[in-house]
Amino acid sequence: MELVNELWMNGNTPSLIACTTLIEGFRSTKEIDEAYELMEKMLQEGMLPDSVTFNCLLSDMCDAGKAKEANKMRLLGLNKGMDPDTVTYNILISGFKREGKKKESEALVEEMLHLEFIPDIATYNRGIALIVILQDFCHKQLLLLREFQDSQRKTLQTLSVVQYYNGKVSTCYFEERE
């Protein structure tokens, strides 16, 4: 890691391939902190890793009981232009759950829904009470619709409840009636 830092300090940026190879080497020898440090440096320098390397490191961090740091890494990646995927969220949800951090895992599920990710069977199998979260999401949508109805003096004709069916989530909706 010292050599990589020295390269960066001298203005010589190592290639993405070199950094990815080093991260994989650190991961294979269980040097997760070094891999984290290198990934953090890469992201700060605007060097975006592939999603497989990124998600594997997040998984290793969660396995080491560092879900909070893994989530920080996700947020840094997000700020630098990386797009998290369902795998990213599933890893973090699982990591927070193993650490007994239910609120953090539920917040990630809610974020997935807000970003219109569809939680898949892997999300559900990670032990999240997905149905409760979806019911809460729908309840909030219903309250917003009622506020809208009161402000517009229109009635709701149709309200669809959030359903989890064959990996698809339908959202609450309404149709206006004069």
UniProtKB/TrEMBL annotation:
PANTHER family named in the record: PENTATRICOPEPTIDE REPEAT-CONTAINING PROTEIN 3, MITOCHONDRIAL (PTHR47941)
Keyword Glycosyltransferase recorded: no
InterPro entries, A to Z: PPR_rpt (IPR002885), TPR-like_helical_dom_sf (IPR011990)
Annotated family: Belongs to the PPR family. P subfamily.
Protein name: Pentatricopeptide repeat-containing protein
NCBIfam families membership: PPR
Residue stretches of each PPR repeat: 15-49, 50-84, 85-119
PROSITE patterns for this protein: PPR
Alphabetically ordered keywords of this record: Repeat
Source organism, top-level taxon: Eukaryota
Matches recorded under Gene3D superfamilies: Tetratricopeptide repeat domain
